[in-house]
Amino acid sequence: MTPRRPRKPGMPGKQSPLAPVETITAEKNLPSEPPAGPQEDRVTASREAPIALLERDHDAATVIAFPEPPGRRRRKWWLAGIIGTVALVAGLIAYLVFSPALAVRTLDVQGNQLVPEDQITAALAPLLGTSLTRIGDDDVRVLLDGFPPVKDVSVAAAPPSTLSVTVIERTPVAVLESDGKFILIDAEGRQLTTVADRESAALPLIDGGTNAVNSEVFSSIADVLAALPADIRKRLVHASAGSIDSVELKLTDGKTIFWGSAEENAEKSRVIGALLTIPEQDPPVKVYDVSTPSRPVTR
């Protein structure tokens, strides 16, 4: 097979059976250059812009203010309300704390039996003239700390000018005799106050004077006396113990209560309370033995 010779340029040949090809020319239209000379300024407004220039010439501009967004106005009013409320509360507090309208002029003392009222009011005199809002329980406790019978206090304001003080006193359980004086003591052996004579204190006498509180049996006696109801304690004239297991109480009618040790005090108190309500017998009872509260004995 003879190879086909290449066709020289310009040599005629057979026309291609394909359709003639069109040549397409694309031309990019570039923006024309802005005309020379002054241009009008464009004005844009956004949500953040408070004002916009609407019209401007070569010498002056006209400016108008857009309305403030509602959300911003609400925040301003809300902030102003908070500031006003805080200022009002601060002013009210300052008035209550420093105003002479609430200054203490009267003291109302309650609950005291062992400490005379005039002594308490004299001790609380430094509080007169002080605003009721500035006085608390601790302020009164400090002033009454020198009174042994005072265990605690409770303070209440009674506007416009009265301070009510409720005194909580320690409970005396026995009497000690020393140098002709009769001293009331509590269950801890604390000396509370002094009475003029023995009849003034309806409590049992413990032998041994003021040194009795240092004896090994004192805590047993004191625990027993503290466990007794007040109405029974008032019927006692004497309390003693030969040992910690042999506490003995003497009643005003001469009868004896043999208590034994300072154990099961609550149960023994209940039993002796019931025994003392039994009508007189013949022969009369001289001793109530509650040392074993489940099996009390009378003889």
Automatic annotation (TrEMBL):
Its main location: membrane. InterPro entries: Cell_div_FtsQ/DivIB_C, FtsQ_DivIB, POTRA, POTRA_FtsQ_type. GO terms for biological process: cell division. The keyword Cell membrane applies. GO terms for cellular component: plasma membrane. Residues 1-45 are annotated as: Disordered. The chain crosses the membrane at residues 77-98. Keywords: Cell cycle, Cell division, Cell membrane, Membrane, Transmembrane, Transmembrane helix. This is Cell division protein FtsQ.
